[in-house]
Amino acid sequence: MKNPSERTLVFICDPGAILWAALKGGEEKPLGTTRLWGTTGTISGRSLSVVNMPGAVTTTQSQGALQDWAMECLSLSECSKGVHSFLLVAPLGHLTEQERRGAQCIRRMFGEKAHGFTQVLFTYEPEQKDSLEDLLKEREAQRLVEECGGRFHVCPKSIGEELEVTGLLGKVDSILDQGTDRCYTVEMHQEAQLLLVEFREQLKGQLDGFARLKKRINERERMQVNVENLEHRIFREKLARLQDELLLKQMEKERDRGMEVEALSFIYELERLVDKLALKRVRAVEEDHKSREDVQRLREELGRMVDEMVTNQKHRQMCQEKGEEEWELQNLRELLKRLKNNMKKQRREGTGTRRKEISL
């Protein structure tokens, strides 16, 4: 097991964001690649390893690339026995958008268990020392502290005194004493990766299930739309047929009404002609002094005409019931023709009678 006095700290910040003037050992240098910087030294008799991951909060790399970067960090000899604290370095007074998302960046790289070892390290310039309390009350600083579980520490950008380093290590020790794990190990990272893979598979299964469900819902909606369209089409066809039937019945009623009016007009004309004929016959009788036999014959003829009209009227009613109005009109026309011929015949007979009387 690693010596309890030894500490390994991983800083998430740009190169030069914090200077280790008080650390006895050596200056910061690349560790294997330019993506990792660090230094190792002693402070108050304690061994301290510092690893910096510059650009971690500003990178646009994929999730897989970030995890590879984290594994590269944990594979260093300085971190092989575990990381005691992840420190998100943020200068007071002017936090960038990337620094405000730093806690999320650590989670993405190292997993949820790394959150318990994470704290904010606020740095300040010498001229800001008198306003630290106000700077810490700023909303952006408070929000960043909340995202890191309320854990933070404040120190100058250039750590030149041994007391400043021991204060930071004391804060790290306090956090470790409150937790169950003494450090963040490679095994935790591998476990986090397995959980992430499992979560992705579960998420993929849920997304696939949602996709299938959405497909079934879309198919059902399309079927419902097709059924509704079919019902609407059937309804429109029925409505069109009803409209056609109503229009046909209306046309038949109009036609029947027109034939009835024509028949009534014809009967009225016939009655007018009969009245005119009767009047002329009466006048002819009066003028020619016809005998009572002629008058009786005229009356009988008129009686026959009236009877025939009554008979035709009854037949007309029967024709209306059977829809044979045209036949009735034809009979009426023939009756009118016979009446006209009778009138001509009577006129000729009347003229002959007057000539005989004149000759006598």
Automatic annotation (TrEMBL):
Residues 341-360 are annotated as: Disordered. Keywords: GTP-binding, Nucleotide-binding. It comes from the Eukaryota. InterPro entries: G_AIG1 (IPR006703), GIMA/IAN/Toc (IPR045058), P-loop_NTPase (IPR027417). Residues 41-195 form the AIG1-type G domain. One of its GO terms (molecular function) is GTP binding. Pfam families: AIG1. Residues 348-360 have a biased composition (Basic and acidic residues). Belongs to the TRAFAC class TrmE-Era-EngA-EngB-Septin-like GTPase superfamily. AIG1/Toc34/Toc159-like paraseptin GTPase family. IAN subfamily. PANTHER family: GTPASE IMAP FAMILY MEMBER 7, GTPASE, IMAP FAMILY MEMBER-RELATED. This is GTPase IMAP family member 4-like.
